[in-house]
Amino acid sequence: MLSPDSARRAEAAGYTNVKVFHEGIPAWKKAGGLVVSEPESLKELIEKDISHVLVDLRPAKEASEGHIQGAFSTPADSLAAAKERFPADKSAPIILYEEGVNDEAFRTVRGWGYKDTTALNGGVASWKKIGGTLIKGELPSTIVYVWKPRPGEVLIEDFKNYVEKKDPGVLILDVRDKDEAMNGMLPGAVNIPTSEIQDRAKELPKDKLIITHCVTGVRAESAYEDLKELGFTNIKFLNAVIQIDKDGKYEITKK
Amino acid sequence: MRQQKITSLSAFLLAAVMLIASAGQAVAAKPTVGGTCKQCHQPQANVVRGTLVGISNQFKTIQVAVGSLVWVVKFGDDLAVTGAERLEAIPKDKEIGVSFKGDEKNPYAVSVSVKPPAKIPPEKLARVEDVRKLVAMGPEKGNFVLVDSRPRPRYLEGHIPFAVSLPNDKFDRMKDAVLPKDKGKPVIFYCAGVT
Fold first, then answer.
1. Chain A partners of B185 at a C-beta cutoff of 8 Å?
2. If we measure between CA atoms, which residue out of B59, B129, B77 comes closest to residue A33?
3. Average pLDDT of A21-43?
4. CA A25, A28, A30, A34: dihedral to nearest 10 degrees?
5. HEC profile for A56-83?
6. Which of residues 131-190 of B touch A (CB under 8 A)?
7. Of A52, A78, B6, B45, most Cβ neighbours within 10 A?
8. Is the pLDDT of residue B147 over 50?
9. End-to-end CA distance of chain B, in Å?
C-alpha cells in the first residue's frame, strides 16, 4: 500500500488536511469513473508494440488530415453504432482521443465492459506537445486487436510449469510484503518486497531466470523494471492474479 | 500431596482446553476479520484478524477480539512474530493477524503479525463518492490536490482526472515540486489498493 505511506509522510512534512482514497484506482474504475492516460504512455505502447486499440473520435475527414499512428477511425457521433467493431476481448486497453477529452465517448465504451478504457489527456495537442507526429492518410475503421504479452510477461502456463517442475534454473521471486508472504508462498519461492529490491538485489543469482510475482502483477512488473535497470537480463514477471494458501497451493486467474 | 497437585493442575488444564474448544466453536461460522482490520483485509482461511486482548504464557494462548467475539489460539515455541520484537512486546488492543493451523475449534498459531503503522483512521478516508464530487468540481472550485502515489508508468497509463503524479518511493525528492505551498490545502492520496 503506497498511498497511506505517502499520506503519513505528507503529515510529517506539515500538511494538516491529508486524506487517503484507500480503495484507489480499482474502485474508481469499477464505479465507471473517467480515467485519463498520458501521451507518454501511448508513445511507449506504440514504440514497444504493446497490444492496444487506439480510437480517433474526430470526423473521418479531420482524422485523415493528421492522426496518431495505428489509430482506427470511429467518429464520436457514430460511436454507438460501432459497438460490434470493438474487440471481443474486454480486457483490451482502449485509448480514445480527439481534440480534448470526450467524457461521453469514454462512458459509452466503458459501459460496453472495456474496463481498460482511457481517454488521452489533453487530446491531440498533448500528443504534439511531447513531440508525437501525426500521419496523413485514410485510417482503417475495422478494429483489429491481437493480444500479445507485455515485454517481460511470462505466459501463465509457462509459469505453472516452472513452479510444478521446481526447475533449478528458475528462481520465483515473491515481491509481496512480508506479512502477505507469511500467509503462504509458492514452494521454493524467495520473498523480497518491491521496496527492498534495490537494496537486496545482490542476494539474487545472475545465472537463473528470475520470475517476479505479487498478487495482481502490478508490483511484479515494477520489480521487473527495477531488476532490468540493475542489470539483470534474464527476468520475467507474472501479469495475472495469483492467490496462494499456506500449503503453497495456488490459483492463477487472467486479469 | 504432590500427586494431588498434579491432578488438580491437569483438571484445570482440561477445563482450560474445553474453554478454548468452546471459544473456537462459538466463532466457527463467525467473521474472522474485525474492526479496523476490515479496511484493508478480506476474510482469509486460517487467519484471524482483530485486536489483541491478551497473552497467557501459562496456558500458551493468544486471545484476539474479532468484533464482539474472542478467539483463543494456542501457540508454542515455534511461533513466528513479525512487526514486533517478541510476542510480549505487542501492546493490548493492537491490531494483529494470527495465522493458524488446525481447525477452528482447536487453532494453533503459526505466526502473528502486528499491523504496520501506515494504516489510516476512518476520518482520513476518502470514498469513491467523495472523490467523484471533487473531480466533478475540478481542483480549483473543489479546492483539492489529488495525488497518485503509484509508480510513474502506472500513472501515465491511466489516472483519475486532475491527479498529479508523486510516486511513493520518490516522495521526499519530489514533494516540494508537486505538493501545494499551502500546507492547509486538502491533499488526497490514492494508489492501486491491493496490488
1. 15, 17
2. B129
3. 95
4. -110
5. ECCCHHHHHCCECCCEEECCHHHCHHHH
6. 131-132, 135, 146-147, 149-151, 153-161, 166-169, 171-172, 175, 179, 183-190
7. A52
8. yes
9. 61
Q: Which residues of B touch A10 (CB under 8 A)?
A: 175, 179, 187, 189
Residue A181 distance to chain B (closest CA, Å): 11
Fold of the domain built from segment(s) A19-129: Oxidized Rhodanese; domain 1 (3.40.250)
Which residues of chain A neighbour B182 with C-beta distances below 8 Å?
Answer: none
The residues spanned by each domain of chain A are 19-129, 156-253
Cβ atoms A177, A193 nearer than 8 A: yes
Taking the CA of residue A118 and the nearest CA in chain B, the distance in Å comes to 6
pLDDT number for residue B91: 80
Residue with cell 469513473: A33
Task: Kindly list the residues from chain A whose CB atom is less than 8 angstroms away from the CB atom of residue B45.
Answer: 245
pLDDT tens readout for residues A164-210: 998 899 999 999 988 788 888 999 999 999 888 989 999 999 999 99
Complex-level ipTM: 0.79
Domains and CATH numbers, chain B: 2-114 (2.40.50.320), 126-190 (3.40.250.10)
The pLDDT score that the predictor gives to residue B84 is 81
Look at B125 and A20 and tell me if their CB atoms are within 8 Å. yes
Please give the average per-residue pLDDT across A13-21, as a whole number.
96
The answer, for B102 touching chain A at a CB cutoff of 8 Å, is: no
CA A173 from centroid of its chain's CA atoms: 20
Q: Which CATH number fits domain A156-253: 3.40.250.10, 3.30.70.890, 3.40.50.920, 3.30.750.24?
A: 3.40.250.10
Place of cell 470514498: B127
Whether the predicted pLDDT of A2 surpasses 50: yes
The number of C-alpha atoms within 13 Å of A214 and in the hemisphere containing its C-beta is 21
Give B36's pLDDT tier (boundaries 50, 70, 90): low
A-contacting residues of B 6-35, CB under 8 Å?
Answer: none
